[in-house]
Write a structure and sequence with these properties.
Distance between the termini: 27 Å
Helix content: 25-40%
Oligomer: single chain
Number of strands: 10
Largest sheet: 5 strands, antiparallel
CATH architecture of the largest domain: 3-Layer(aba) Sandwich
Structural class: alpha/beta
CATH superfamily of the largest domain: Periplasmic binding protein-like II
CATH topology of the largest domain: D-Maltodextrin-Binding Protein, domain 2
Length: about 280
């Protein structure tokens, strides 16, 4: 069940003393597919071992980290603590468990349509008029926006651009409209993400490395989670998805099945890729 973050989060997380410690709460931004993907994969498998889950839609990354560090939610299914969300991780890491890395090769990108003549972030210099002076971003305060604003723009001298922030769906709508009209547009994207395959886009080369090295996608949990749920924590820690496995699951969740059919999407993925998942630990 999905509930809004406007609810009192403290009432959602499991209490190990209430006698029902297999009822857990995910907290995440439902518009971010890596979070949605991992939450539903965990739920599908763990439900066979007595667990049930509530899905709480949290407004932004800072709220996610605050909630899990306070124990208001049990699990953050996916996060980017190594670089993209490093500020939040450094602030809260003493009160958060890092359960493990389930995808090792995530990275931020700036992307343009394939028909664009530009191939590098450096090519954006002097091309402001083609893009109306805008780089289309996602949520303000997100790691992608922070890295572009604080690292990419200064490193490449892109002072002639405005980084527009709104939301991930709004960024995708802008990308879709521009491609439909065959206009120039540059957007903040990341890999893995389904939009890279759905839209005819290409990553701009980053010769100065301002976007950073690839990083892992981590599952995080509230304090003492592993001690209270050792089998679940061990199982999550052993998940490692390849590019193909991740991409296939994301495509099913977002492009084949509708909202509310996430578990059906996982079931189809399990038929083809279930052997890639670790065995459940002996209870």
């Amino acid at each position: 069940m999905l509930v809004s973050a406007s609810l009192a989060l403290g009432a959602c997380a499991s209490d190990p003393n209430d006698g029902d410690d297999k009822e857990l709460t995910f907290g995440y931004m439902t518009a971010w597919s890596d979070m949605l993907l991992m939450a539903n994969l965990i739920e599908y498998v763990a439900s066979d071992h007595g667990y049930s889950f509530e899905h709480t839609d949290v407004n932004d990354v800072a709220a996610v980290y605050t909630a899990v560090s306070n124990g208001d939610i049990d699990i953050v299914p996916s996060s980017w603590p190594e670089r993209t969300n490093k500020d939040q991780w450094e602030r809260f890491k003493n009160n958060i468990e890092d359960i493990g890395v389930f995808f090792p090769n995530a990275r931020l990108t700036l992307a343009v349509p394939e028909y664009s003549e530009l191939d590098s972030i450096a090519d954006l210099v002097g091309a402001e008029a083609r893009f109306d002076g805008d780089i289309i971003g996602i949520e303000a305060g997100s790691g992608a926006v922070n890295v572009v604003e604080n690292e990419v723009i200064p490193e490449y001298g892109l002072d002639g651009y405005t980084l527009k922030t709104s939301s991930t769906p709004a960024m995708l709508a802008e990308l879709d409209d521009a491609i439909s009209d065959k206009r120039d547009v540059v957007v903040t994207l990341w890999r893995p993400y389904w939009a890279n395959n759905t839209y005819p886009v290409k990553d701009l080369a980053d010769p100065k490395g301002a976007l950073g090295e690839p990083e892992g996608l981590h599952t995080l949990a509230r304090p003492d989670f592993s001690a209270e749920h050792p089998e679940l924590a061990q199982w999550i820690s052993e998940i490692s998805l390849s590019d193909e496995e991740y991409g296939a699951l994301e495509d099913l969740l977002l492009n084949k099945y509708d909202e509310g059919e996430e578990q059906e999407a996982i079931a189809e993925w399990i038929e083809n890729y279930g052997d890639s998942l670790p065995a459940w630990p002996t209870e």
